């Protein structure tokens, strides 16, 4: 993409409505625009990152054997009356009447609808296990929408639902989700710690939340610092392998890590003092096992091996896809702007032309642009007739992890400059070497996507 042809409405001033850095930077970098309280339009740069995050979620769900569907945002109240949640859900549910006076609602989550799909089409244990998921807009009429897209009223969420014949099988689905979520967050450059949580109105005994550590997080968290040494890394996981998934879950959840809702001071005091940490975190996902709560209320049964009808065991599992943008920025920025992790960056590499209109500089930039594009990468070429300082400021603000700077002086010596946004370290090299380096850096990220 050439900047002169792009739509990147960056703001010079700090927007006064933003209280936290991710909200401020998303507005300043022209990623989102508020449409009304807690509801946002996604401008090109923001939308691009949102789709990168969404792609990673899809790829990792596919890897775990989960199947994508898409359910409507507007649902009939009738199903929610069957489960009893139409009355229980309270003010957060946006309720609508259609022209015939029928009660409708904007989906805050979709347990009822997916259970209805299941009961209409699945009748035998032979069709299990089954996990269906979607990535879809949700609406919750939050009492205090804030922090931009972090606590919006309309937000984008991955919600998945497992159907299993027994508690044991459903707990495998639970473990499998935990493992696949760990890999998902790591691919986005985030460390999300699974923490024992409170099940809240959804009900159920087993639930973990995934928290990204950040000073601006809404939850207080208590953990053994040993959990932050754990990495999912390149492990090859066979998601069908019950023992393997249980092993990873055990490894990541055996250390003390809880939110304020389930914090147990006595247990926490059992952690060696030098490893006890109290911090704040952003919830970027949650998994639940809730047994037969919905399947019993809504008659979702299958024939078991003895031919007897039994209610299926279920769980639901969510990732805050839009909130993740905020969480990633909270965890990756400096005074000059965002620093995207390679896995989610909107463009792979920036190209800055220090002297637009100079024949040699223009030619070198075009050649870099073509070479990066031919290698399957997306460069962003700042081809504006603007002073160098302005170009650097914009590039730092929007946070591309790599930048190639091209100027007539360097070209005389046959070199351009490759700069890491994260470290600020620049190196001079030939344009060919710069392209080769950038391509090499992205190989694991592109490969991770294809493997899904
Ligand atoms: P919270 O406690 O933050 O209100 P929740 O526990 O009600 O969230 P879940 O039902 O677990 O949310 O939804 C799954 C994920 O969706 C959450 O982990 C979070 O990342 C995201 N999410 C929930 N509410 C919002 C919101 N209002 N804006 C943006 N993302 C949200
Ligand atoms: Mg939650």
Characterise the protein shown here.
The relative contact order is 0.14. The protein is built from 14 helices and 23 strands. The protein has helices spanning 21-28, 44-63, 77-83, 85-88, 111-121, 167-187, 242-253, 265-268, 293-298, 321-331, 359-374, 388-398, 408-412, 431-451; strands at 32-36, 39-42, 67-68, 74-76, 94-97, 103-106, 130-139, 154-164, 192-196, 206-213, 219-224, 257-259, 276-291, 301-303, 309-311, 313-319, 333-334, 337-338, 349-353, 379-382, 402-406, 416-420, 426-429. The two termini are 26 Å apart. It folds into 2 domains: 13-337, BirA Bifunctional Protein, domain 2; 347-451, Rossmann fold. Strands 3, 7, 8, 9, 10, 11, 12, 13 and 16 form a 9-stranded mixed β-sheet that branches. Strands 20-19-21-22-23 form a 5-stranded mixed β-sheet, with helices on both faces. The chain has a 3-stranded antiparallel β-sheet with strand order 4-6-5. By secondary structure, the chain is α+β, with helices and mostly antiparallel strands. Bound molecules: adenosine-5'-triphosphate (ATP) and magnesium ion. The site of magnesium ion has 3 residues, from strand 13.
Report the radius of gyration as a whole number of Å.
Answer: 24 Å
Give the CA-based shape: globular
Strand content: 25-35%
CATH topology (fold) name of the largest domain: BirA Bifunctional Protein, domain 2
How many domains make up the 3D coordinates?
2
Q: Structural class of the secondary structure composition? A: alpha+beta
CATH superfamily of the largest domain: Bira Bifunctional Protein, Domain 2
Query: Averaging pLDDT over every residue, what do you get?
Result: 95
Helix content: 25-40%
How many DSSP E strands?
23
Helical segment count: 14
Name the CATH class of the largest domain. Answer: Alpha Beta
Ligand species: adenosine-5'-triphosphate, magnesium ion
CATH architecture of the largest domain: 2-Layer Sandwich
Distance between the termini: 26 Å
Poorly predicted parts:
none
The largest β sheet comes out as: 9 strands, mixed
